[in-house]
Write a structure and sequence with these properties.
Elements (H helix, E strand, L loop, with lengths): L5 H15 L4 H8 L3 H13 L3 E4 L3 E4 L1 H23 L5 H11 L9 H12 L1 H10 L2
Antiparallel strand pairs: 1-2
Bound molecules: manganese (II) ion.
């Protein structure tokens, strides 16, 4: 298994913060299926990168830049999940797994077109159904 990237950490911290109002190293480790020591190491690295504030024994939280990045990374994941779901590419867990593999290759600044497409599909389901029905 590859090491979760900084982006995975930031995305996970965003989700935890949304769910619970805060994120702790133990929650992060559990969510990413890694050891607390690895999670702690990455938290310090993200602190050094100016994305988290971190105080030993007191936990951590987003800086403004970290929060913005976490929100964008989470949005990217959601947009790609919506696209793959529309494409009927598998069960939710399968789609989640695929997105985990591809999301890092999509620059968040270039997601606008994909977001436009999935929004269009939501508003015009009959248009999308015609496309799906036309598939060989
Ligand atoms: Mn993700």
């Amino acid at each position: 298994m590859s090491t979760p990237s900084q982006e995975d950490y930031l995305e996970a911290i965003w989700v935890l913060t949304q769910e619970k109002g805060y994120a702790r190293v133990v929650d992060l480790a559990e969510r990413l299926n890694i050891s607390p020591a690895s999670a702690s190491k990455m938290v310090r690295r993200l602190h050094e990168a100016g994305l988290l504030t971190y105080e030993r024994y007191r936990g951590f939280s987003f800086t403004a830049r970290g929060r913005k990045t976490g929100r964008l990374l989470y949005a990217r994941h959601q947009i790609l999940e919506r696209l793959l779901t529309h494409l009927a590419m598998g069960a939710p867990e399968e789609i989640h797994r695929i997105v985990e593999g591809i999301e890092h290759h999509f620059d968040v600044s270039r997601l606008g077109q994909i977001e436009r497409l999935v929004n269009y599909i939501d508003v015009h389901p009959e248009w999308w159904q015609a496309f799906l029905d036309d598939s060989p």
